[in-house]
């Protein structure tokens, strides 16, 4: 998501070629690919730094397999002495392998064997890495430009269409070559190749005090086609956290929910797009499997139309199958049935395209701070459809921010949806220095879309039974619990809280597939119960002001047969006797069939009358037997 500062915006007086470039829609189809490149120099400062880098990749492998296994992931070791072939050696047949580089994993979809192979490699990396891969001689510096060329070639020849490709270079060396060498200039020239291929290059420093000035500042600005002064040094710890989660900044911000037009008035509109403030975590789709071989059961939906006869009977005159799109709705209008086809219904639903219409402005104080109707969205300008939308959007945002105004609009988010009344609240990007977490990168300058409540969202609660004199407390008791609430107050940090049920599901999947356990503490990472007990320890003696709690009476447990309880009911008639029809006739004559159990009555119907009936009460079963006997 690029900035919408008018200084960086497109010139409205530019030629037709620029207009065609801006209006051209981007192709969002394709897969994401991330190619990890680990610098072998990490082992010079001790194996701890190399193991930390490999653990980051291990976490990325596991999270990638659980979140989206369609993405492509590869691993290369750079600045190595030896170049052993990967497990799938045939994948490098059409690739020129340079010296001092080793491909551990070509770009492949994550599968269970790939992750198991990497975990097996990590088990002996501490003792075998120096012998298997080693370090480039004499100074541990291989050709950086050849390594970049290898990465570009692997991304181009992966065999899949890519929409977003990244190269993540994990290193602790500030410059790959001396600044006065020819290799240094050759490495800088490779930045233009990355920019032309639209491959993103990211440096992941494995030390917090990493220096970008000698080489990587210029290399990154050249690869991204930005000014040298606009480069900002990122936080190294944040980059490592992002990489382990496999959610770089671009991944979040490019996944918009939709594009639509924002109409400000007659003949005045701009194109915008909106995002979620949070990433939805969808559960795996439930499937039915066969018990014998765990194969997935394939289901097919079939709609059958039956026409009954007009004589009032239940006989079927005509029966045929239709598709889902061939169905219809029937409603009674007057004395006639009106049939509405699915095609007619879709045309009514598609009368309007997704859009937003401005209704007016109100002061910011008129909107409550929290609305419990629907999570808010974030709106951002886009020049794909209407050139100059960023400039107009910025003007509206600045005036609303200065005057503390909110815009009231009518918003239709997608086709076939119901229009909703929303409020556009101007928000500013927070200072990155306050919060050292990559989730703060999702918040920027723009409008927050707040969904306004309607009459159906307001509940009327009857508080008469609860709010009476018997439930009131004096001022001393109220003040006591005010102190308790202040002592137990915690800082809510959503990035530390995961979905407990989803965590349990993923932990079970990892335990079954990869045979290792994961930490699923959930809220335990946020709350320290020991510290909370210490906070309220001094206030517990004052709790005596409340009356003792009266425990509700416990239900009496059922007695066992050894304690004198009555035994379960037993059949009063022997089953062997029921096999004789004369004995059954005597029961019918004496009216003693009620002495039989329901199972015995079903046996009589099957054995002597060859009749099978569903489960019924005993009275109906007895009546059925008597009816069959009399007939």
Automatic annotation (TrEMBL):
<dbReference type="InterPro" id="IPR006165">
    <property type="entry name" value="Ku70"/>
</dbReference>
<dbReference type="Pfam" id="PF03730">
    <property type="entry name" value="Ku_C"/>
</dbReference>
<dbReference type="GO" id="GO:0000723">
    <property type="term" value="P:telomere maintenance"/>
</dbReference>
<keyword id="KW-0539">Nucleus</keyword>
<dbReference type="Pfam" id="PF02735">
    <property type="entry name" value="Ku"/>
</dbReference>
<dbReference type="InterPro" id="IPR047087">
    <property type="entry name" value="KU70_core_dom"/>
</dbReference>
<feature type="domain" description="Ku">
    <location>
        <begin position="319"/>
        <end position="469"/>
    </location>
</feature>
<dbReference type="InterPro" id="IPR016194">
    <property type="entry name" value="SPOC-like_C_dom_sf"/>
</dbReference>
<dbReference type="GO" id="GO:0043564">
    <property type="term" value="C:Ku70:Ku80 complex"/>
</dbReference>
<dbReference type="GO" id="GO:0005524">
    <property type="term" value="F:ATP binding"/>
</dbReference>
<dbReference type="InterPro" id="IPR036465">
    <property type="entry name" value="vWFA_dom_sf"/>
</dbReference>
<keyword id="KW-0067">ATP-binding</keyword>
<dbReference type="GO" id="GO:0016787">
    <property type="term" value="F:hydrolase activity"/>
</dbReference>
<dbReference type="Pfam" id="PF03731">
    <property type="entry name" value="Ku_N"/>
</dbReference>
<dbReference type="InterPro" id="IPR027388">
    <property type="entry name" value="Ku70_bridge/pillars_dom_sf"/>
</dbReference>
<keyword id="KW-0547">Nucleotide-binding</keyword>
<dbReference type="GO" id="GO:0006310">
    <property type="term" value="P:DNA recombination"/>
</dbReference>
<keyword id="KW-0378">Hydrolase</keyword>
<keyword id="KW-0234">DNA repair</keyword>
<comment type="similarity">
    <text>Belongs to the ku70 family.</text>
</comment>
<keyword id="KW-0238">DNA-binding</keyword>
<keyword id="KW-0233">DNA recombination</keyword>
<protein>
    <recommendedName>
        <fullName>ATP-dependent DNA helicase 2 subunit 1</fullName>
    </recommendedName>
</protein>
<dbReference type="InterPro" id="IPR005161">
    <property type="entry name" value="Ku_N"/>
</dbReference>
<dbReference type="GO" id="GO:0006303">
    <property type="term" value="P:double-strand break repair via nonhomologous end joining"/>
</dbReference>
<keyword id="KW-0347">Helicase</keyword>
<dbReference type="InterPro" id="IPR005160">
    <property type="entry name" value="Ku_C"/>
</dbReference>
<dbReference type="GO" id="GO:0003678">
    <property type="term" value="F:DNA helicase activity"/>
</dbReference>
<keyword id="KW-0227">DNA damage</keyword>
<dbReference type="GO" id="GO:0042162">
    <property type="term" value="F:telomeric DNA binding"/>
</dbReference>
<dbReference type="GO" id="GO:0003684">
    <property type="term" value="F:damaged DNA binding"/>
</dbReference>
<comment type="subunit">
    <text>Heterodimer of a 70 kDa and a 80 kDa subunit.</text>
</comment>
<dbReference type="InterPro" id="IPR006164">
    <property type="entry name" value="DNA_bd_Ku70/Ku80"/>
</dbReference>
<dbReference type="GO" id="GO:0003690">
    <property type="term" value="F:double-stranded DNA binding"/>
</dbReference>
């Amino acid at each position: 998501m690029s900035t919408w500062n008018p200084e960086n915006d497109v010139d409205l007086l530019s030629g037709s070629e620029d207009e065609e470039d801006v209006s051209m829609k981007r192709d969002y189809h394709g897969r994401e690919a991330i190619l990890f490149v680990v610098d072998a120099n990490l082992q010079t400062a001790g194996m701890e730094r190399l193991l930390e880098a490999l653990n980051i990749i291990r976490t990325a492998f596991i999270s990638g397999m659980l979140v989206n296994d369609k993405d492509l992931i590869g691993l290369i070791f750079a600045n190595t002495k030896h170049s052993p072939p990967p497990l799938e050696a045939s994948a490098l047949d059409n690739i020129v392998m340079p010296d001092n580089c080793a491909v551990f994993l070509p770009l492949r979809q994550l599968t269970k064997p790939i992750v198991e192979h990497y975990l097996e490699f990590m088990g002996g990396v501490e003792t075998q890495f120096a012998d298997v891969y080693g370090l480039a001689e004499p100074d541990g510096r291989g050709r950086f430009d050849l390594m970049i060329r290898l990465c570009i070639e692997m991304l181009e020849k992966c065999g899949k269409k890519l929409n977003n490709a990244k190269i993540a270079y994990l290193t602790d060396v500030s410059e790959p070559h001396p600044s006065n060498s020819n290799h240094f200039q050759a490495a800088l020239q490779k930045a233009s190749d990355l920019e032309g291929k639209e491959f993103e290059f990211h440096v992941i420093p494995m030390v917090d005090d990493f220096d970008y000035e000698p080489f990587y500042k210029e290399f990154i600005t050249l690869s991204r086609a930005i000014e040298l002064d606009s480069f900002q040094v990122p936080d190294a710890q944040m980059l490592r956290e992002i990489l382990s989660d496999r959610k770089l900044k671009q991944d979040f911000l490019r996944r918009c929910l939709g594009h639509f037009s924002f109409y400000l008035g007659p003949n005045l509109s701009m194109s915008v797009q909106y995002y979620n403030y949070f990433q939805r975590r969808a559960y795996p789709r439930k499937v039915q499997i066969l018990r014998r071989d765990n194969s997935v059961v394939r289901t097919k939906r079939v709609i059958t139309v039956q026409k009954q006869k007009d004589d009032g009977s239940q006989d079927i005159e005509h029966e045929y199958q239709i598709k889902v799109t061939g169905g219809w709705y029937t409603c009674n209008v007057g004395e006639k049935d009106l049939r509405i086809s699915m095609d007619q219904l879709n045309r009514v639903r598609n009368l309007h395209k997704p859009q937003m219409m401005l209704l007016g402005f109100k002061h910011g104080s008129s909107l409550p701070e929290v609305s419990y109707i629907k999570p808010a969205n974030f709106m951002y300008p886009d020049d794909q459809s209407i050139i100059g939308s960023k400039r107009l959007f910025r003007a509206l945002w600045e005036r609303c921010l200065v005057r503390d105004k909110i815009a009231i609009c009518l918003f239709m988010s997608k086709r076939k949806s119901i229009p909703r009344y929303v409020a556009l609240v101007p928000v500013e990007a927070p200072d990155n220095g306050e919060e050292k977490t990559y989730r703060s990168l999702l918040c920027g300058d723009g409008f927050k879309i707040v969904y306004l409540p309607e009459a159906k969202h307001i509940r009327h609660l009857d508080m008469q039974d609860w709010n009476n004199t018997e439930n009131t407390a004096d001022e001393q008791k109220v003040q006591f619990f005010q102190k308790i609430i202040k002592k137990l107050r915690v800082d809510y940090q959503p990035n530390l809280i995961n979905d407990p049920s989803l965590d349990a599901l993923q932990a079970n999947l990892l335990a079954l597939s990869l045979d290792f356990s994961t930490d699923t503490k959930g809220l335990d990472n946020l709350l320290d119960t020991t510290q909370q007990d210490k906070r309220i320890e001094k206030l517990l003696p004052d709790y005596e002001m409340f009356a003792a709690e009266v425990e509700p009476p416990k239900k009496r447990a059922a007695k066992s047969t050894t304690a004198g309880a009555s035994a379960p009911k037993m059949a009063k008639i022997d089953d062997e006797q029921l096999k004789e029809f004369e004995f059954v006739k005597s029961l019918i004559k004496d009216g003693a069939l009620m002495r039989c159990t329901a199972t015995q009555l079903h046996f009589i119907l099957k054995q002597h009358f060859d009749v099978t009936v569903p489960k019924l009460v005993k009275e109906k079963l007895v009546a059925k037997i008597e009816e069959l006997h009399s007939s």
